[in-house]
Design goal:
Elements lengths: L1 H5 L3 H4 L7 H39 L1 E6 L3 H16 L4 E6 L2 H12 L12 E7 L6 H11 L3 E4 L2 H43 L1 H9 L4 H33 L26 H24 L1
Keywords: Cell cycle, Cell division, Cell membrane, Membrane, Transmembrane, Transmembrane helix
Main location: membrane
Organism: Shimia aestuarii
Length: about 300
């Protein structure tokens, strides 16, 4: 493929018009699809980072909620902390302060929530070791020693979130595949139109001894270079648009982290060569089919 595209033939290139509807269609289609591919790739990579972050943050943390009468709350909290300190697999455990619990409730109830006067359960943050702990055994111990305690190991939250992020990542790759297929279809239409428009020129070339492979090679080279140029422009524009998006922020959540990080910025650079490969295959198939029909 590289040799066919790189080795130019001035005589053969005259077979394919350098401008016109098909040239503009190929450039526009390749550029637009490359632009969309950059965003689909960014979505897929951001979804992967999101799934990993959710898994890392929730996998090794748990929450203990203590609901008890006000006169028993401090005693049960102290008993729960002592129990957690002696539980294998737990790295640390600490009771959240009133200020921290107020911050957790602030998005729903506002900043002036009177925590001291409301029967709000006491929350204990648990950090696990790499090996984790036996949640079933811990629940039994808590039931016996701290009857007002409820353990949440975040499993019911983590699994659906990781599954949703994984499906979103898969959706991004499916979108990239569909964009590639659409690019191939549009380039095929443009190549068919160019071949049909030059039917008389092709007939003359055949009369003077030109082989179909020679004619097809001219069309393949021209359309591959057009797709490469259009995709390069679309990729640059897409990367520029990604740069203009807000950086990742805790307040903004997932939508502010849509972009590339580190070596990920090199991945969009693969889009123009891949678009050229699609154009090469699509134009070659279209040329062979149309030339056989014109025979």
């Amino acid at each position: 493929m590289i040799a066919t595209v790189a080795a130019g033939d001035a005589q053969a290139d005259r077979v394919v018009p350098p401008t016109g509807f098909t040239a503009r269609l190929t450039l526009f289609a390749a550029g637009t699809m490359a632009f969309l591919t950059v965003f689909a790739l960014a979505l897929s990579l951001a979804s992967g980072r999101l799934a990993q972050r959710w898994g890392d943050e929730l996998a090794q943390s748990s929450t203990l909620r203590i609901s008890a009468p006000a006169e028993q709350l401090d005693a049960q909290t102290a008993a729960a902390l002592r129990l957690l300190e002696t539980t294998p697999g737990i790295a640390s455990a600490r009771a959240l302060s009133d200020k921290e619990q107020r911050a957790l409730l602030e998005p729903w109830f506002g900043p002036d929530l009177p925590v001291d006067s409301l029967p709000i359960p006491q929350l204990i943050e648990i950090r696990e070791t790499d090996d984790g702990y036996d949640s079933a055994g811990l629940r039994l111990r808590l039931q016996a020693e701290v009857p007002g305690a409820v353990l949440d190991d975040h499993t019911r939250w983590r699994k659906p979130l990781e599954r949703a992020a994984g499906r979103l990542r898969l959706l991004g790759w499916v979108a990239i595949a569909l964009i590639g297929a659409t690019t191939g279809a549009m380039i095929t239409l443009a190549a068919n139109a160019a071949l049909a428009a030059n039917a008389q020129v092709i007939s003359v070339l055949r009369l003077i001894g030109a082989q179909d492979s020679y004619i097809a090679r001219a069309f393949v080279r021209r359309f591959t270079l057009r797709a490469l140029a259009g995709a390069a422009i679309g990729t640059v524009m897409g990367m520029g648009a990604i740069l203009l998006l807000p950086a990742a922020q805790d307040e903004g959540g997932f939508l502010t982290g849509l972009g590339f990080t580190g070596a990920g910025w090199a991945l969009p650079l693969m889009i123009p060569p891949l678009a050229a490969v699609v154009a090469y295959a699509a134009t070659g198939a279209a040329a062979r089919r149309t030339l056989s029909e014109l025979a």
